[in-house]
Amino acid sequence: MNRLEKLEKRWFELLKNPRKEDNEEILSLGRELELERALEYKAIKPELERIGINITSIWDLVNTKERYPKAVDVLIKFLLEVTQDGNVEGFARALTVREAKGKANKSLIEVYERTPKEKKHLRWAIGNAIATTMTIDDVPWVYAAAKDRSSGMGRSQLIRAIGTVRTEESENILIELLNDESVLLPVIQSLAKLKSKKSKEKLIMLTQSANKDVKKEALNALKKIG
Question: Is the Cβ–Cβ distance between 180 and 187 less than 8 Å?
Fold first, then answer.
């Protein structure tokens, strides 16, 4: 077990049952973890400095309120090079910006496809970036990825992206996905966004669901659809 793995193991152990007296260690470990992960992409710092951007870790960009359009090409380059999950997520989130639309989409799709399906949280983050940066040419891929039930909740942001594509095919795919309990909430939300009248009958049935969240979303969707 290397240093990074030891730090992550201890950090996750503390987070499982956090106690007030552990807060200082949790914060300290978090800082150590980020510095250790940053070693994988240390070459990005001088590249960004050349365009006037200074960071300690990729999360500096994720958390900033400033825009950084000049950094997009550099971020795409390193997205394809990093391998540690925390770094992949960080770069994907840093590219979840409008300036990366039509530029980072293909690289994000490549990273999504090579990410194991069991890493649902990581796929969620990458899918969210794809939803922000995708173009009309990516829609067929999004449709196919959203229908892949073996991906579970990892594809939920791709399903929400379908709600922005106002076509009959989008509507039909979403209605079909109402049979998939693992993604019901994003499916219902996307149908509401499309104001899908074709889905009303099934949504009415879902208002009787024992799942309170599903029932609430179905009722909200029906109000929006009218």
Answer: yes
